[in-house]
Design goal:
single chain, about 190 residues, alpha/beta, UDP N-Acetylglucosamine Acyltransferase, domain 1, 2 domains, six-stranded mixed beta sheet, 5 helices, about 35% helix, about 15% strand, globular
Length: about 190
């Protein structure tokens, strides 16, 4: 969670790295809507977690939340603050629904048409998790570190680290995770 200026900078730096960037240029900010959404989300998280009783920061937070909500609606995102760790990479716009109480570790690569929701509990995902297009993760499940969730998988039970899960319902299809399979890195255009 972003708790101060230093952690805010760390989150932004890791998010940019996940997008294959070292800094944000004017082109990147204005033409890469998913990245712009993420950068504003991180700013909102920073202000929300640190503004205290500062009226000016609270007003700026409200403005940013309205502006980012409009962008999120256009992109199809329902992504609340303080859910994702540093290094988030939203690959492309499209429907993404995340429950506000879900927790996702560092280095998540998230594709469109995915849901991280609840059904009698919320998911908790580890670090370096790849979530393929159309995947649904629900219930009080836990996924370990370095897990790849295949496209259109329905994850309704917990899995350990360093595995690939796929299918409906999801099952382990490989004893290698996202990093070993190479699906966790790379620059994209979303």
């Amino acid at each position: 969670m972003i708790t101060d200026k230093q952690s805010y900078r760390h989150y932004v730096q890791q998010d940019l790295k996940a997008h294959g960037l070292t800094r944000v240029g004017l082109y990147d900010y204005w033409w890469r809507d998913c990245l712009r959404f993420q950068l504003r989300l991180r700013r909102i998280e920073y202000l929300h977690n640190t503004c205290g009783n500062n009226v000016a920061k609270k007003l700026w937070l409200m403005v940013l939340e309205v502006v980012n909500h409009r962008l999120a609606t256009r992109l199809g995102f329902t992504i609340p603050k303080n859910v994702f760790g540093p290094g988030l990479c939203i690959v492309h716009y499209g429907t993404i629904v995340v429950h506000p109480e879900a927790r996702v570790g560092a280095g998540c690569r998230l594709h469109p048409s995915t849901s991280i929701g609840d059904y009698n509990g919320v998911p908790h995902l580890g670090d370096n998790v790849y979530i393929g297009p159309g995947a649904k993760i629900y219930g009080p499940v836990e996924l370990g570190d370095n897990v790849a969730v295949g496209a259109n998988a329905v994850v309704n039970r917990s899995f350990g680290s360093n595995v690939t899960v796929a299918g409906v319902p999801a099952r382990v299809v490989a004893e290698t995770g996202a990093i070993e399979q190479g699906v966790h890195s790379g620059r994209h255009t979303g």
